[in-house]
Amino acid sequence: ASGMDARGRDADLLARAGAGDERALARVITVVEEGDERGDELLRELRPRTGRAAVVGITGSPGSGKSTLTDALVAHWRGEGKTVGVVAVDPSSPFTGGAILGDRIRMTRWHADAGVFIRSLATRGHLGGLSAATLRVAAVLDAFGYDVVVIETVGVGQSEVDVAEAADTTVVVLTPGAGDAVQAFKAGIMEVGDVFCVNKADLPGADRVQREVRSALDLKPVAPGEWRAPIVTTVASSGEGVAGLAKRVADHREHLAARGLLEGARRRRVRAEVMAL
């Protein structure tokens, strides 16, 4: 009987979350993130509803302004009437083992907006690895009908490559003067970027970063009809160039759709989740 009770409670929880109750959605995410049997069951219920969201990975080294850029993109998408879910993967806090809430604090202006849901996850010892929890949470946000789901990762090597596996479109954020381009070449991240963004483009050296990235991309031949990764410049703090970046992300999704590749991206996401588990 208690099993039935629990199932009934969970069905009620899903119904409330589906009706737009943010606290119920937060509770569903907590259960799914914990990854026990109950979480598996909830996710199984939700899985058939997934596959509609545009999943965008935003990655780059710490200090590249990813959070400010994500915030500016959220504002742009909201202006277009889209709903947005953000999963921010924070380094584990040494004090609580929970997430350092930097992203949450920066994005508090969305607190009262029902069309935006932001969740910070701790990497919980998966240093640099995109934990299975992140992909599960992204799946939940997709199932509950968010138009865009953003996965923003901590910039530690392997996680960038992992996020690219999980996202439909991966935006690699670089900044002038941080040796970012060189780091990106080393980490193999050039392979996975669909759109390259030189942020803080008002700083000296932005042109040079653009040139370095372009030369690196030119080394890899692009077959006719394949996607050629564009490089855009932004100043996220003022919003400059953000609309252009959003356009490139949309263009990439259209390219995937036109070539029938979206289903493959979805399968890749589930596969990445299983591998992470």
Secondary-structure element order, N to C:
HHHEHEHEHEHEHEHEHH
Quote the average pLDDT: 83
Tell me how many strands there are: 7
**Largest sheet properties:** 7 strands, parallel
User: How large is the share of residues in beta strands?
Assistant: 5-15%
The residue ranges in which pLDDT falls below 50 over 5 or more consecutive positions are: 93-99
Structural class: alpha/beta
Number of helices: 11
- Helicity range: 40-55%
Quote the distance from N terminus to C terminus. Answer: 31 Å
- Shape label: globular
Major β-sheet strand ordering: 3-2-4-1-5-6-7
Radius of gyration, rounded? 19 Å
Give an overview of the whole structure.
By secondary structure, the chain is α/β, with parallel strands linked by helices. 48% of the residues lie in helices and 14% in strands. A 7-stranded parallel beta sheet has the order 3-2-4-1-5-6-7, with helices on both faces. The protein is globular. The model is unreliable at 93-99 (pLDDT under 50).
